[in-house]
Batch of 2 targets.
Target 1
Amino acid sequence: MSDLRQLYQEVILDHYKKPRNFHPLADAHRSAEGYNPLCGDKVTVYLKVEDGLLSDISFIGSGCAISMASASMMTASLKGKTVTEAEAFFERFHALVTGRAGTNAEAKLGKLAAFSGVCEFPIRVKCASLPWHALRAALEAKEETVSTE
Ligand code: ZN
């Protein structure tokens, strides 16, 4: 288990240091901001939705390693997926970080399973799920800032 833990840690640090899709999207169809006051994490998620597909997804923001790595891995995992698939990922990821996911759900999350240890740290659950809440707000085309509070 400790080897797996270490691998997960490395994946998260890699995405924190070299965030993927870290830029605003000039021609985004939708965007939403998220803010986690407990930690000070801020993230804005940009989406391009074409024919039910997330043809492009990016983010900007600042915060702790967990929130930034989560945003980076979310964008990398969801680019090219359908909106329906993105919503399924949201549910699975949320179950994972709150400790409700079975091993089956974990397998379906791919690299995002790196966040499985987060459920042991309740204060970090909001960090990890912040970009996902912003994603959902963007999918629902809400304009206001979502807060984890
Ligand atoms: Zn945080």
Target 2
Amino acid sequence: MMQKVVLTGDRPSGKLHLGHYVGSLLNRIQLQAEETYQSYVMIADTQALTDNFERPEKITESVFDIMRDYLAVGIDPERTTIFIQSQVPELAELTVYYLNFVTLSRLERNPTVKTELAQKGFETSIPVGFLCYPVSQTADITAFKTELVPVGEDQLPLIEQSNEIVRRFNRTYNTDILKEATPLVSKTGRLVGIDGRAKASKSLNNAIFLSDSPEDIRTKVFAMFTDPNHVRVSDPGRVEGNVVFTYLDAFHTDFEEVAALKARYQHGGLGDTAIKEILNATLQTLLEPIRERRQTFTHKELCDILQTSTHAARRVAQQTLEEVRNTIGLRYFD
Ligand code: TRP
């Protein structure tokens, strides 16, 4: 049976949080269980370096944290090839060939890149490595003949860019060896931060991490943004934009109970402390086994798994690179 290749990646710049859990990890666990898919998960350390090259230890340390998070939530190395980007040098060589198929202005116009350039204050002095990361991402995708890329909304321009490079390459060399990929946008969307801001993220310090202690979880739940006009317990409260309810929607297992809580809250008579206690209990139950499982792997075990599966990924990338070189005609000695 021909399996479809599914590839996802994470930049290792900190531990994974609940936003990753609902936005991508659950999805990956589901996909890896399906026989028709072959799953790859890439730890994108090379890409993470493009905006952290002055602090490489931040990246290299996160690689193992993230690997621990993956295994703890149930990404199974028997079913999913988890590999480290920088340890597959074929990706770098593919990037060099693909750079010919994209213009400077096209990269600068990429909406994802544009937003990031502004966020990082790079506009007046753009590091070329950063600007070109979409090309390197094209190498990640094509090296494994990826058909499906489950991503967040913000990654869509990168997949589009990748497919554009694929089409140009194929047209130029009159071939079809490179495959276009289809993005699969997560239905859940992104999880808001505990402060109610658009996105839970490490840099905004508004995320609950999979590895947070019970005390940290509780503190963060009790710091959550609710409804500023809900002053007394008896006041009617707002559910929309209320982070506690957003998280209950995402993580509470009993849909009807959440609906009943919402009705009571809107009516008046349900306090913030009460709903926060319920959310706290929900999250403690979810995260306790994950936190405990995180501790069961030794550093050596993580290392061994990563080394074996990176080696397997490398063999696939070598094969594609060989085809690409042959297609261009870069073959002199045999
Ligand atoms: N750009 C992705 C992110 O920031 C990470 C990534 C790198 C990726 N290479 C990829 C995602 C290939 C999907 C496919 O989350």
